[in-house]
Specification:
Number of helices: 8
Largest sheet: 7 strands, parallel
CATH architecture: 3-Layer(aba) Sandwich
Distance between the termini: 41 Å
Number of domains: 1
Shape: globular
Radius of gyration: 18 Å
Strand order of the largest sheet: 3-2-1-4-7-8-9
CATH topology: Rossmann fold
CATH superfamily: NAD(P)-binding Rossmann-like Domain
């Protein structure tokens, strides 16, 4: 897909981190970008910076997602690109014993479901609604109508202690990539997923310098945290390369996560 001002894109989680970097990269190519996020102040700032549109969207809500797509399409036209970066996580053991008094607890199911609803169901909700819109578009070269990029995590393959919900949600994103690509192949819509490793995003902003240094040292090469711009470059590669379809690609400096 050739990126220029005839193309519209939606980036979920585009107010910060990987999503913001991708929104900037797309806008730099002339693409009209709509940012879906709950962080209104940050989202509006990024949108103003890139000449895009901010839509306050909760990916766990059909009504909110529908309203976001309606607003984005009214401003920019039907999107040909969807990049899913909205996500969250938590760290809770499946079952554990308190060191203080021996009390036994288990992972609260509402906390487990919260991560699944945002990371997995929210991603699918946006894919399904965006793809339905893409079906209305005239095909481009090779019959292409659109391109979708999802965000999983290396935790989908080597999750750490306490990451049962997070790993399950991201594993689900990986697991649905190929079947969705197959669902949409007859309509010219490609679907790929990136599995980022340890990236320097707002999620790590509060971490002490020694923690960041230890995380960077654990990466085989290069021994540093990933940069959001590197994610954005891979996302654009997936979008621009017409033969890129149905793939799940790790972007992690060669790391394989230890149990903790």
């Amino acid at each position: 897909m050739k990126l220029d001002d005839s193309i519209a894109a939606v980036v979920t989680g585009g107010a910060s981190g990987l999503g913001a970097a991708t929104a900037r990269a797309l806008a730099a190519r002339g693409v009209k970008v709509a940012i879906f996020d709950l962080q209104k102040e940050k989202g509006e700032a990024v949108a103003a910076e890139i000449g895009g549109l901010f839509c306050e969207v909760n990916v766990t809500s059909d009504e909110s997602v529908d309203a976001g797509f309606a607003r984005a399409r009214a401003a920019h036209g039907q999107e040909r690109i969807l990049v899913n970066c909205a996500g969250t996580g938590n760290a809770v053991k499946t079952a554990s014993r308190s060191k203080e008094d021996g009390t036994i607890r288990h992972f609260p199911l509402e906390a487990f479901n919260w991560v699944i609803q945002i990371n997995l169901v929210g991603t699918f909700r946006c894919i399904a609604k965006s793809a339905a819109g893409m079906l209305t578009l005239d095909p481009l070269e090779d019959g292409e109508r659109g391109a979708i990029v999802n965000t999983a995590s290396v935790a989908a393959e080597d999750g750490q202690i306490g990451q049962a919900a997070y790993s399950a949600s991201k594993g689900g994103v990986v697991g649905m990539t190929l079947p969705i690509a197959r669902d949409l192949m007859g309509e010219g819509i490609r679907v790929n997923t990136i599995l980022p490793g340890i990236f320097d995003t707002p999620l790590l902003a509060a971490a002490p310098p020694n923690v960041k240094e230890a995380l960077a040292a654990s990466v085989p090469f290069p021994k540093r945290l990933g940069r959001p711009e590197e994610y954005a470059r891979l996302a654009l590669c997936m979008i621009e390369t017409g033969y890129f379809n149905g793939e799940d690609v790790r972007l992690d400096g060669g790391i394989r996560m230890a149990p903790r």
